[in-house]
Amino acid sequence: MSCDSCYNGCVETVSDQCVRYTGLDSVPLDIQNGDNLQTTLENIINNLVPLLTGEGDKILLIEAIRCALINTYLPGPTIPDTWTSAQIFEALTKSVCALQAQYDIGAGLIFDIEAPYTTECLTVVPGNSVTHQVLQATIDKLCTTVLDVYALELDLNTNYVKLADFDALVAAYLASLPSGSTQQSSKMVPFVAYEYYGSLDNFDGTGAGIPGNGFYKVYLCNGLNGTPDKRGRVAVGAIVDVPPIGIGLDAAVNPSNPANPNYALLDTDGSNSVVLVTPQLPAHSHTSSASTSVSITDPGHAHFVNYLNKNGGDGNNVLGSEAGSNNRATTSATTGISATASTTVQVNATGNGEGHPNIQPVIAAYYIMYIP
């Protein structure tokens, strides 16, 4: 196929050696004004084609913007910090692929929905929690634990004694007590009432023991200082709330018997004397006879005796009277009439209604109690 006037009307074929470049010099392409067409084209091809393949350029990639992973895949530069675009793209690609591989491994471990986390001590986290929920709950738990540890540390430093300091503190306390005094509380069980036959000079006006006399935290049981008032009283075992409740009680003390009190702690009862009333006396009778020493005095009385056909009598019912004495009717030997009579004798009451003693044999003692 022929071409006429294809090149701007130029029909003459000229060798590229005869055509000259008349443009500006190009240092990057190594082209100068006056170079023939062949040289110019060769320089353009030699410089541009490597750019298209990424092998002919030089890119500055300073160390400040490179990470260790990129450096792993970059070859050693011929010029410091300078690589071709192909070298840089290859290093970037390998770095991204390495990160993707690490991510895939981590995702397989972290986001495995077939194996939900066990979150027993964590709160607001369901059993099939995702990693973010578990991690957040773990952080919350850790923060709470840290606060608890700080609070425990403060509590220990404030309210507790270090073991290394204990002996020194005990020694200091013992040294603060009056010299030569032995505290009786060291021999006593707390809250137990003990009989005490010593001097009351060891206690103050409230019944509190005097430390200098060896009675630190020992008190008279007088109802003050947290003690029961045992003055004039003996103890009886409480029943209310004492286990086993209501089981094994002897009939003599079981409150199911109305005569038995159901004692609760610190209840009081009883009396030193008792006045009996009539219902409390045993059933009994009073008798009198000539053989007894009971003396009955008759002040005098009269009996009425009826005689037949006398004093208005009609033969069956007679009227009249005959004086008599000593509870016997006067009888007539001639008529054969006799009469009987009854009289009421009153026995006067006696006694002053005073109470009788109701005290078992006792010995008086002071009671003392150690209260820490």
Question: What attributes does this structure have?
Answer:
mainly alpha; 7 strands; three-stranded antiparallel sheet; 372 residues
Describe the structure.
It is a single chain. By secondary structure, the chain is mainly alpha-helical. Among the domains are: 1-53, no CATH class; 54-108; 163-220, no CATH class; 300-328, no CATH class. 25% of the residues lie in helices and 5% in strands. Strands 3-7-4 form a three-stranded antiparallel sheet, with no helix packed on it. Strands 1-2 form a two-stranded antiparallel sheet. It is rod-shaped and about 200 Å long. Mean pLDDT is 79; it is low at 317-336.
Instruction: Figure out the total of helices.
Output: 5
What about the largest sheet? 3 strands, antiparallel
Uncertain stretches: 317-336
What integer is the average pLDDT? 79
Give the proportion of residues in helices: 10-25%
Shape: rod-shaped
**Order of strands across the main sheet:** 3-7-4
Structural class: mainly alpha
First-last Cα distance: 127 Å
Q: Gyration radius, to the nearest Å? A: 65 Å
Number of strands: 7
H-E string = HEHEHHHEEEEE
Residue share in β-strands: 5-15%
